[in-house]
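Hi all, long-time lurker, first post. I run a small reading group and we've been trying to get comfortable going from sequence to structure in the token notation. Rather than ask abstract questions, I figured I'd post a concrete chain and ask someone more experienced to write out its structure so we can walk through it together at our next meeting. Sequence below, copied exactly:
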Amino acid sequence: MGRLINLDKVCRVCGKTKQLEMFAKRSKDKYRNECKECTNLKKRKTPVPPKPKDGFKFCASCKEEKSLDKFSVRFILGKNRPYSYCKECERKRDNNRYAHTCNVCHKEYRSGRKDSHHCKECHDEHFIKTYSLLGTLDLSGEKNPMYGKQRFGKENPNYKPNKTDDEREHGRLFEGYGVWRKAVYERDDYTCQCCGKKSEGDIVAHHKDAYSWCKDRRTDVDNGVTLCQRCHHAFHNKYGRGKNTERQFLEFISYYKVENTLP
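-- Answer (accepted) --
Happy to help. Here is the structure in token form:
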């Protein structure tokens, strides 16, 4: 019979008998005298934390034992696991993540914002007072310096410098077009001139002679008429788009008045 092989070994550090797989190999057939657990403990640079009670966990920052609901949860390796820091310590760490130099007093400070420029003391002294003063000003209606002012082109905050002139013309983004549209609505009392429906946010300013070919009358109020979206779609479904004329519009209105229905 062959020689029996002992699959257990005694650790010289902890004195416990453990299986060979719990020991690190020293060579092909030989194992170390210390188990892996004792070897790892010897290499640790920090003390082994005590084992927490069920439903509790030790915070890696403040070292206090706290219930699991005091920790944020992270999805790690397919499971929801509590974070190493408690919520309070995590908040403190996040609020002191970045180092800055104050632009006013030149004091070094830490903040949770990467783009911070002023320490809390300078912010409270120089900016909070400004915000409080602005809150006391009445800038409503005509008291607002921008009241009634229309800004066109580059002066408009929505101006897009990358657009070409052709794109602006196609998108009807030129000075005076918005004024023309509002004037058409006000003249027609925001009411569809075909079916008589009052505006519910669904009206359009229609060009009698089309915008595409009649460039001289693009902002002529007499060339505009208010239509609801339903009548506007019905008109273009019948006459198409791009080469419409005022004669087509008069024909469209006459049909509606006689038949009391859209063509």
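A couple of things your group might point at:
The chain has four domains: 8-43, 56-94, 98-134, 176-259.
Helices lie at 36-43, 87-95, 120-135, 165-170, 177-187, 229-239, 246-259.
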